Amino acid sequence: MVKKVGYRCAECGWQTAKWVGRCGECQAWGTVAEENARGGVHVATAGAVSAPAVPIGQVKAEVAHARSTGVPELDRALGGGLVPGAVVLLAGEPGIGKSTLLLEAAAKTARQQTVLYITGEESAAQVRVRADRIGAIQDRLYLAAETDLSALVTHVEKVQPDLLIVDSVQTIGSALATGVPGGVTQVREVAGNLVRLAKERGMSTVLVGHVTKEGSIAGPRTLEHLVDVVLHFEGDRHSRLRMVRAIKNRYGPVDEVGCFDLHEGGIEGIADASGLFVSHRAEPVPGTCVTVTLEGTRPLPAEVQALVARTEAQQPRRSSSGLDTYRVTMVLAVLERRLNAKLGGCDVFTATVGGIKLSDPAIDLSVMLAVASAAGDKALPSGLVVLGEVGLAGELRPVRDVRRRLSEAARLGFTRALVPTGSLDTGSKRNGQNSLVPVGGRAANFAPGFDVVEAQNVWDALTHVT
């Protein structure tokens, strides 16, 4: 039978009859390669099974329970800990602290289980120096410097670890695959073998991955589909604060975040991260507004800052840091169109404090009020937190878990809050003349002296704060 020559994208699997430089599906360059395939469909025959099928009620669920890593903040991001047989991909920029975090977790896990740490980027002596510095020396923590997949498998067979850490997957190569380590073919081959090894042995596996300049995980996109959990390790390299965020988790939630403090003595989890993303000043400053975002089950007060400056340029700049650029642009458009703000001849800069990245729609109103405060050079009232999603018509939409957010704000000493109408199920009322009415029973709901005010739209909100 004559073989048909086809081409397939290594990133997304898109197929084409002729070679092209750019994938027609994912738009990636240089990922389309030749693939020989016989025409027709192969008929699969019966083969041996690894285990007989049993009623689902007889399957033992205890083996899939998560086990703690010994690092509570990492357990939070993982949804409780590491599940036996699960494969976790930890991605982040070089030098941000991935190896330090995993070495800390490996040492604490090794107190009760056997851990094998494979380093492909550093020598064993370099890892030992780091372990001495952070106090990560344990008898059941094994270390090996390898870059060959076959040698890695040999170490696994000899050590029989409960937890395997590979730092990093881009440095491991296989003699059975073409290309250099870190390439598309090699990464897929190595990751596929490690996933198979983890499932067969019930061994928790953590793979370290690098990210590109755009912030996405380096290597083929199929790598994210092969693993069970994908964690992003992020933070400002000029700051000690680090955060681990889950973007895929087959065993738990994907909206949890763990906070860490990276210092010379190692890395420590921050159990109470409230207040880290808010500036502490004696007097309010124009262009600042405090909101409360929700990261999984954790409410985090965060400060949004804005600066509006006149410019002679024909195209004023719109720059944001830590915020969704497209959502900020939408909020600025609503501010100009619905509140007649004159921002056409001004540069507008928006940012968050502490390096936190906010994507919660509940921060829309705080961004708008921060920009309005900066444009009018008038500070917002002190002790105020603002919540609300802004619609294109200027309406304010309720957000979820308002009571939990406001309870955290009251705990930190804030005294008043501005929320959309209907955010609180009980205690709100309107008098028909002013759309801003304090919510009754506020002392019982939150804290003594904590006032909650409702606003129906952006006009009401601006009227309240000015």
Label the overall shape: globular
Structural class: alpha/beta
Mean pLDDT: 86
User: What is the distance, rounded to the nearest whole angstrom, between the alpha carbons of the first and last residues?
Assistant: 80 Å
**Strand percent estimate:** 25-35%
- Rg, rounded, reads 27 Å
Poorly predicted regions are 426-445
Q: How many extended strands? A: 21
The oligomeric state of the chains shown is single chain
Determine the number of helices (DSSP H or I, runs of at least 4 residues).
Answer: 11
Write the layout of secondary structure elements.
Blueprint: E1 4-9, E2 15-16, E3 32-37, H1 72-78, E4 87-92, H2 98-109, E5 115-119, H3 124-134, E6 141-145, H4 149-159, E7 163-167, H5 184-201, E8 204-210, H6 222-226, E9 229-234, E10 241-249, E11 257-263, E12 266-269, E13 288-295, E14 298-310, E15 318-321, H7 325-339, E16 346-352, H8 364-376, E17 384-386, E18 389-390, E19 396-397, H9 402-411, E20 416-420, H10 442-445, E21 451-455, H11 458-465
Parallel strand pairs: 4-8, 4-9, 5-6, 5-7, 7-8, 15-16, 17-20, 20-21
Antiparallel strand pairs: 1-2, 1-3, 9-10, 10-11, 11-12, 13-14, 14-16, 18-19
Helix pairs in contact: 7-8
Protein name: DNA repair protein RadA
Keywords: ATP-binding, DNA damage, DNA repair, DNA-binding, Hydrolase, Metal-binding, Nucleotide-binding, Stress response, Zinc, Zinc-finger
Family: Belongs to the RecA family. RadA subfamily.
